[in-house]
Design brief:
- By secondary structure, the protein is mainly α.
- The protein has helices at residues 2-31, 36-41, 52-55.
- The protein starts with a helix and ends with a helix.
């Protein structure tokens, strides 16, 4: 039974690492102020489909 648990944890680590990287990038983007051109081009839009598991 312990072997199964270890195998399952190993398969989740890359997903967890990617999630932490996405959260870190999001936090850095929140901390940075946009310039005038970027603010003008930034229009509200739907979240990308690959980010939906993070939201829900």
């Amino acid at each position: 039974m312990k072997k199964e648990d270890k195998a399952r944890i190993k398969t989740r680590k890359p997903q967890q690492w990617k999630l932490h990287q996405q959260i870190a990038q999001f936090a850095q983007d929140l901390d940075r102020l946009p310039d005038a051109r970027e603010a003008r081009l930034n229009k509200p839009r739907s979240a990308p489909q690959h980010l939906l598991p993070m939201v829900f």
